[in-house]
Amino acid sequence: MYTISKLRMIGLEALEQKLGAVDTERFLVSMMRNAGDYTTSRRQVFDDLSIEEIRRYTSEYCGDHPISEEARKRSDAYKASRQ
Q1: Rounded to whole angstroms, how far apart are CA atoms 54 and 61?
Q2: 24-33, 44-53, 55-64 — which is least confidently predicted?
Q3: Backbone angles phi, psi at 75, to 5 degrees
Q4: Which of 43, 8, 48, 5 shows the shortest CA–CA distance to 28?
């Protein structure tokens, strides 16, 4: 049996594989519209994870979902405009 945090992580990964990150977020928002407190829901997902686990998941996600060249250029242009 999975912890609730692990179960949610697996579910989110499955959604992201099928829908991608943006549409997963849109789907979750549409399902949970006015359904509660964002901070509380984030705590339910992340409170059982150690900092090392969060770093590992983040690193794995970034490795599996590299930023596109177009997005990198937009990010660099934005950063340059803020200086």
Answers
A1: 10
A2: 24-33
A3: -65, -45
A4: 8
The domain limits of the chain are: 4-81
Place of tokens 């991608």: 20
DSSP-based helix, strand, coil % in the chain, nearest 5: 75, 0, 25
SS3 48: coil
The first and second tokens of residue 77, run together, are 């242009």
The Cβ-side half-sphere exposure at 72, using a 13 Å CA radius, reads: 5
Q: pTM of the full predicted structure?
A: 0.42
Q: Is the pLDDT of residue 35 over 80?
A: no
Question: Is residue 42 within 8 Å of 51, Cβ to Cβ?
Answer: no
